[in-house]
Amino acid sequence: MAGCGGGGSDAGGGSPAEAAAKVCEEHAVAQLDGKLHEMDVAALAASMRDAEEGTKFLTAPIVIEPGLASETKQVVECTVRFNDGQAAPEIIRFVFNW
To answer: Which fold has domain 16-97?
Structure first.
């Protein structure tokens, strides 16, 4: 079914990379406990590559508390696994890399 769509655009919202990026972003938001942040979710999705044991690895920069004196720049590293019968991938490993 991956060949369906015909428009040549990646903006369908339903690709595996986009699903993985969404799960990773949601996890980042939960870890940040309400802090403001900026992260390019499209770049996170575009970074997806194969990792060990059938997992996928995604990475992208994140700015926590942008514009504030406490602003920090880090890199999100997120490893996910797609399982049959589940709508979203599960997070296997997630870190903020300083």
So the answer is: Nuclear Transport Factor 2; Chain: A, (3.10.450)
